[in-house]
């Protein structure tokens, strides 16, 4: 290890409590992007993040407005024009905390419990932003950044990044870079450093079925009025067969078959049924039996019901035929599926299966394209070497089941590839009560990022 690397690593270790304190300040702000009542909190989180970025030494720090929640930008171009520019992406918004009663500690009062920092956003992804800022600070405070960096941190990822594409298009020159780093992925286990080379895309819908003009007495009208809740349940049930395969016509037409090398690589992933059962708490697993678990999670598209609502849901009984029923539905997409094409497929299907006894409406709430990067790309090689140095073992490569729409936008608009990593773990309970961050893994991740930036500076073929 070079003396410069060693000094940066030692600096990070000696300041780790400061980095945890800064992360706690971010987690304390309930930046829930989907709820109107938290709009002010989202703005406060952006302001706090900008303050931290400026304090750590980034220049040209700005809180930049969009049509809803702001983007936070900062840069350090001191490495010079002969060194590559790395665009570091993140998001500071978080998911709602419901059901609140299942939290063991208040979600926005972060607490260290053993090896874990508990709180909403600790893992997804305020903790990952904090790790990247910590690596930057350690490098800048010792011998300076070996590469140029630009940070773009949005506040709308958890609602599908509806305004980020326009932001990127309108700020091409500001964001011009040679490669993007996205630490919004994760690891399979604390001892298994991971590089994600593919992400699924997303299409998100709201389906409404309308029946009578108002709730009806089920004794008076039952038997002559088609219940919209029943209609909705029957339609949803028909979207899968018994094997778990999506029955939507045309849904699989663009799905790429997996090549043999990729099947072998995915087969290496330690996704055993016992592990998945322990992580999820379900009595048994489900899905397309002809594909292994890693293929189902990362290489196969899905259609899921995310929420259902209709009629009376309080305690006790209220015998009604509800006036409407609603379902939230999302599709995770793989190359070369397109969210707008899936929207058209679902619309066409609903026109064929919805009975004339009800009215219905399908709202497209947003989405993003799937993406895949070459594991042989110089930046991926730099990342692989960094992870191996930090963990003492080569990384594994996986497809991720989640979606980050901006990666496709970066490639299309800015012409840059993205490398994906992150130091969250499968049992971090992201999007669920008691979300937490495994601090030993997070600390090692900071050191891996320091190595990554040094490795990038030594790589050939990165400058545009």
UniProtKB/TrEMBL annotation:
<keyword id="KW-0479">Metal-binding</keyword>
<keyword id="KW-0645">Protease</keyword>
<dbReference type="Pfam" id="PF07687">
    <property type="entry name" value="M20_dimer"/>
</dbReference>
<keyword id="KW-0378">Hydrolase</keyword>
<dbReference type="InterPro" id="IPR051458">
    <property type="entry name" value="Cyt/Met_Dipeptidase"/>
</dbReference>
<dbReference type="GO" id="GO:0046872">
    <property type="term" value="F:metal ion binding"/>
</dbReference>
<dbReference type="Pfam" id="PF01546">
    <property type="entry name" value="Peptidase_M20"/>
</dbReference>
<dbReference type="InterPro" id="IPR002933">
    <property type="entry name" value="Peptidase_M20"/>
</dbReference>
<feature type="domain" description="Peptidase M20 dimerisation">
    <location>
        <begin position="197"/>
        <end position="356"/>
    </location>
</feature>
<protein>
    <submittedName>
        <fullName>M20 family peptidase</fullName>
    </submittedName>
</protein>
<dbReference type="GO" id="GO:0006508">
    <property type="term" value="P:proteolysis"/>
</dbReference>
<dbReference type="InterPro" id="IPR011650">
    <property type="entry name" value="Peptidase_M20_dimer"/>
</dbReference>
<dbReference type="GO" id="GO:0008233">
    <property type="term" value="F:peptidase activity"/>
</dbReference>
């Amino acid at each position: 290890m070079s003396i410069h690397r060693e000094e940066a690593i030692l600096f990070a270790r000696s300041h780790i409590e400061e980095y945890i304190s800064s992360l706690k300040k971010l987690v304390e702000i309930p930046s829930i992007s989907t709820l109107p009542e938290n709009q002010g909190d989202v703005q406060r989180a952006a302001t706090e993040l900008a303050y931290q970025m400026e304090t750590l030494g980034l220049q040209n720090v700005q809180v930049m407005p969009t049509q809803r929640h702001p983007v936070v930008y900062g840069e350090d171009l001191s490495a010079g024009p002969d060194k590559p520019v790395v665009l570091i992406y993140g998001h500071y918004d978080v998911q709602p905390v419901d059901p609140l009663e299942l939290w063991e500690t208040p979600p926005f009062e972060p607490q260290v419990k053993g090896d874990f920092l508990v709180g909403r956003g600790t893992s997804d992804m305020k903790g990952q932003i904090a790790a990247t800022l910590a690596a930057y600070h350690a490098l800048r405070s010792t011998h300076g950044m070996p590469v140029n960096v630009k940070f773009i941190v949005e506040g709308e990822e958890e609602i599908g990044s509806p305004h980020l594409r326009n932001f990127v298009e309108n700020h091409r020159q500001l964001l011009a870079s040679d490669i993007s780093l996205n630490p919004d992925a994760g690891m399979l286990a604390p001892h298994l450093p991971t590089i994600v080379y593919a992400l699924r895309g997303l299409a998100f819908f709201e389906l409404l079925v309308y029946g009578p003009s108002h709730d009806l007495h089920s004794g008076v009208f039952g038997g002559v009025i088609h219940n919209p809740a029943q209609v909705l349940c029957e339609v949803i049930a028909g979207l899968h067969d018994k094997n778990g395969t999506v029955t939507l016509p045309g849904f699989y037409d663009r799905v790429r078959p997996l090549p043999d090398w990729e099947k072998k690589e995915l087969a290496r992933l330690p996704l055993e049924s016992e592990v998945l059962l322990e992580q999820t708490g379900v009595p048994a697993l489900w899905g397309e039996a002809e594909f292994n678990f890693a293929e189902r999670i990362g290489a196969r598209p899905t259609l899921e019901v995310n929420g259902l609502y209709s009629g009376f849901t309080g305690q006790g009984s209220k015998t009604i035929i509800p006036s409407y029923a609603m379902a939230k539905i999302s599709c995770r997409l793989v190359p070369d599926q397109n969210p707008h094409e899936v929207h058209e497929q679902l619309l066409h299907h609903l026109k064929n299966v919805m009975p004339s006894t009800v009215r219905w409406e399908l709202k497209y709430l947003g989405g993003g394209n799937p993406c895949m990067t070459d594991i042989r790309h110089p930046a991926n090689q730099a990342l692989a070497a960094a992870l191996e140095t930090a963990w003492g073992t080569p990384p594994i490569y996986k497809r991720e089941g989640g979606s980050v729409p901006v990666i496709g936008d970066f490639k299309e608009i800015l012409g840059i590839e993205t490398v994906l990593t992150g130091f969250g773990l499968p049992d971090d309970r992201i999007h669920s009560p008691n979300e937490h961050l495994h601090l030993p893994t997070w600390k090692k991740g900071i050191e891996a990022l320091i190595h990554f930036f040094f490795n990038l500076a030594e790589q050939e073929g990165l400058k545009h």
